[in-house]
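Aim 2 progress update. The chain analyzed this quarter is reproduced below.
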Amino acid sequence: MKQNILIVDDDKDICLTLSKILNSKGFSTVIANNSESALNEIKKSAIDLVLLDVWLENSKQNGLQLLKVIKNYNPNIPIILISGHANVEIAVKAIKQGAFYFIEKPFKSEKLFLIIDRALENVFLKNKYESYKESEDDEKELIGNTILINNLKKKVKQISNTNARVLISGESGTGKNHVAKIIHNLSNRSSKPFITINCASLNEKNFDKLFFGNYNDGNKIVGYIQKASQGTIYLKEICDLESHIQGKITNFLQNETFALDNTKGEKDKFNANIRFISSTNKDLNTEVENKTLRKDLLYRLNVATLQMPSIKKRTEDIPLLINYFIDKKEKLTQKKIRISDEVYPMLQTLEWPGNVTQIKNFVDWLYILVKSSTKKIDIITANMLPNDLLNKNKDENNKENKSIMNMPIKDARKNFEKQYLINQVRRFGGNISKTANFIGMERSALHRKIKEIGVKK
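Predicted structure tokens:
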């Protein structure tokens, strides 16, 4: 996507010359010959950088006054001031008010290109830094190779190439935040901000200031809308929003405009160019029925839908996820651990109610457990696994053992066979073909056996 530069100068010839030069370098340009025209372009267009003349003759506002207005609207827009007859005092004042650079006419085009590149790079790095603070885990892909995950990967890639709003549903810990970040990183907005809003933190008192900003001289707050300009806002857990806030967000999504107070005490309306991604771990139909989620907000946000599968539906991915987190941890700590081969099948049969997050925490626990050097590789065996992870299975096994001891051998064999098949089917995520291949049975024979002993697929 071409970066858009607004050229503001009362000299039309200078505007046209700059426009041609910048177009030749791959930039798109917009021209304004006075402050009113410039402000209108800022309100309606996505602007990446402003070249602004200081004096702007025959204009309601000069360059320094317009600089302040633009910075109030969006502090992230880099502004380069240009003047043919300025002094050090004006240059210092401009920099203090937020100008990125002050350049005097006449100037060489090479110098202008260098300053523009630096300004845009500076914004890019700021956005990346903010994005990094949002999440330490900046992976660019989903880990897993099951049909569910591969289909999800395809859908994420398709959705990322659009500007459609996305609603991500799924249990806690399944990776909704991660997918929201992937969508942003794969989109044409990847160089722009990614802002996460924890919906539970918004309330009646702070919403307007946090969301839209506050520009009173004594208490300047940059709102999420300004921070996310041309980027992505991620609404985390939308069902936690208070009802009246849902209404305000719905109105904003409908109009995609917001208002800011200007220097005259009036309100200027600006267009918002922001993509919205939202998530929830709750059942949407139930939330709508209970009137804790507004239908109109759901319709605005739910243009494209993604459903995150729980770990119990993709147990084949458990070894891949564990090894992935081990590799990440190894790079950070230089400690080397490996899980014994016989442990993986056991881990695939365990319950993981915390999903991917719980698996990550499990790997973190392993690294706390071992006290290895950077040279030695520690092997994790079954007897080293945490008790709280194994207790549920131990309790179930103890019950099975007690009941088996009271059975004739024929019934005990049948009971063992049933439990064995339950664990194997669960291990392979309900995939009968893979289960049959592993245990050495024909697929049709396994189907009959499952039906015979009453194993649920």
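The chain is about 50% helix and 15% strand. Residues 312-389 form a domain with the Helicase, Ruva Protein; domain 3 fold (CATH 1.10.8.60). These observations will guide the mutagenesis experiments scheduled for the next reporting period.
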